[in-house]
Amino acid sequence: MSTYVITGAGSGIGAEVARLLREDGHDLVAIVRSEGRAADLAGPGVRTVVADLERPETIAEALAPLADETFAGLVHSAGVAELGTVASTAVAVWAHTLTVNVVAVAEVTRVLLPALRRGRGDVVLLNSGAGLRTSAGWTAYAASKHALKAFADGLREEEPGLRVTSVYPGRTATAMQRGVREQEGGAYESSRYSDPVTVAGVVVSTLSLPGDSVVNDVTVRSRG
């Protein structure tokens, strides 16, 4: 079967994408942030590579061992969300949000492009409803997700041999959503949110499309 690379495979939507791909018989390379997380995720059919997404300048060296491989796809699921108004958001929050959510994504993709070209692979980017519209208190996060959409659209134009898909989930029952609700001062009600398994299924369905078609953008919203 094929080999896919994934970030954010340790929790939430990324973990479910990894599980579904393994159930379909695919091998995985999980890009993780620490040796501890690598030990947690490594297993049959799953290799791990430690790369610090908060330091994009180190990513090329960390991923160098993958240079000669062939990949069927790359799923970007890692991300951060810190809320705040423009008046209250410090420059460090802006820098961290844009670095992890955009710059690191661009660098991981750039480094793996030769391997993805060889596999005529897919690049799937877990975006957000905030990548389509902006709400008060979400400006830094939304700016990063709007930039992520622009990155996906540009990559699609530049690399016609790849399939590039942006997935825009709404509120999903993940640890990140729990943190978001704490920042909003509201209750975390998982029954009102999409199940991460559902969103992961959408991601895997785009990877499973026949080669004659591509889904450029797909939005997933809870019914709660």
Radius of gyration: 17 Å
What low-confidence regions span 5 or more consecutive residues with pLDDT below 50? none
Mean pLDDT: 95
Backbone shape: globular
Q: What keyword list fits this structure?
A:
alpha/beta; 7-stranded parallel sheet; 16% strand; globular
Brief overview:
The protein is α/β, with parallel strands linked by helices. It is built from 7 helices and 7 strands, in the order βαβαβαβαβαβααβ. The model has no long low-confidence stretch (mean pLDDT 95).
Structure explained in plain terms:
The protein is an alpha/beta fold and 224 residues long. Helix content is 42%, strand content 16%. The chain has 7 helices and 7 strands, in the order E-H-E-H-E-H-E-H-E-H-E-H-H-E. The protein has helices at residues 12-23, 35-41, 59-63, 91-119, 139-158, 175-184, 196-207, and strands at 3-7, 27-32, 46-50, 73-76, 122-126, 163-169, 217-220. It has a 7-stranded parallel beta sheet with strand order 3-2-1-4-5-6-7, sandwiched between helices. The model has no long low-confidence stretch (mean pLDDT 95).
Set out the fold topology.
Blueprint: E1 3-7, H1 12-23, E2 27-32, H2 35-41, E3 46-50, H3 59-63, E4 73-76, H4 91-119, E5 122-126, H5 139-158, E6 163-169, H6 175-184, H7 196-207, E7 217-220
Parallel strand pairs: 1-2, 1-4, 2-3, 4-5, 5-6, 6-7
Helix pairs in contact: 1-7, 4-5
